[in-house]
Amino acid sequence: MIHSVESPKHSASVIAGVIQRLSVSQLKKHKLCPRAWFFRKVRRLPEPTIGAQNIGTEGHAQLEHYLSTGQDVLGPFAKSGAHLLPVPGPELLVEQKLDGDAPLTAGGIPFTGSVDLVNPRQLATDGVLRITDHKFTSCIEELAATAEQLADADTEPGLQMVGYGAWALGQAERFPGLRTLELEHIYYQTRGQRLAASVVASVPVEHIEREWRTKVEPQVEAMKQHAQAARADDVPANYGPACTKYGGCPFMAKCLTGESKTMSLRDKLLSKPTESTPITATVELPAVLPPDAPEPAPIQVAPKVAEQPAPKRRGRPRKAPEPTQSAAAITPPTLDSSVSEHDGSGSPAKDLDVRALFIDCIPTAWGVLQPEPLTLYVDTMARRVSQAAGVDDLRFAGSDSSLGFGKWRGALAMAVRDDPPPPGVYLALGLAHSELMQVVVEALEPSFEIVVRGVR
């Protein structure tokens, strides 16, 4: 487990653009999105704690106590995997520090953190050392890593386990005769049925050495460069699934707004209206790029003068005019995106009650409404339906439940249509990786004035 609480002795891991120390969790965060790592570790912006982290922290503490003392203090989640754990004993190494004797280093930078469990019982006879990390997850079937991923430092789980393996290789006196490393994840399911599973990758020490040298060391060099960036905009961002993983990136708004960009006069007026300057608030519809498209040049938007409404006419209403060039500019032909407006009346660009949904793409400019991930709304509605049906997770409702046999999809869609999110601009990223998100987006589309889909 990598501790998130930092000791007073090392109050900052990155000081004045120089990395003082690293952790495996930092490597994982940087691999997932360098800019999110920059906000957290270089700018030192706070990161909220979510409920899933609390469950994992408590479960890790129970497992540590049990493996160290043999006293069974395991809660319901941890107890589901008790049969996968070794018998407690003094030879087991529990919560081993990475910065102890012969600390783990990369690029000359020491690492902090700890390894959940090191089991040397097969070392003397077979030259095998097993390193275990405990994982508490909502769904093992969907979220568990494969053995191949645990051995590959280009993946998030592999980056962590290869790091632990590299630490073990630096302990030659402690682990003599080491030839093979067994990298293990033990998963404990926290929703639905109480399940546990073990995934093990068995690799020779040469594999660990090669992964660390060819993949991790270059990443650390990149982190050194990113730590010296003057602006967050100078650090690359991985738009896409990284924005919604682990409940959504807490730095999404700051990342999308571009903290170093100069605010235009029009934006200043819109954000701080005065009595002497009457303003009609408008929502400028953005150009939209798919996650893998190059970043466009900044768009200059001139202030618009509010038009007086035309006098009312008697008789048959006029036919709606054809779209003008300014409306077509919403989706330039060079962009791989499609826009569908479900309400042809009125102008969403001049209405603060607009609902806009961006699916697998990121807006590059907007007016007074700031984009926000749809993830929180999805989680809230799924939890509401689960509680109403009396189940932990609607996706794993049993056959005796009203949500069984896939009926949860219809129930969730009905709840979403009855209680859509408030007006705003929402981002539905990583649609292919979340069945809950797919159901919610499909149910919401008819009620949104603007729907933009990224094309891959």
From TrEMBL:
Q: Where is the composition biased (Polar residues)?
A: 323-338
Which InterPro entries does the record match to this protein? PDDEXK_AddAB-type
Q: Where is the composition biased (Pro residues)?
A: 288-297
- What ranges does the record give for the region Disordered, renumbered to this chain? 288-347
- Domain PD-(D/E)XK endonuclease-like residue range list: 21-68, 101-255
The entry's protein name is PD-(D/E)XK nuclease family protein
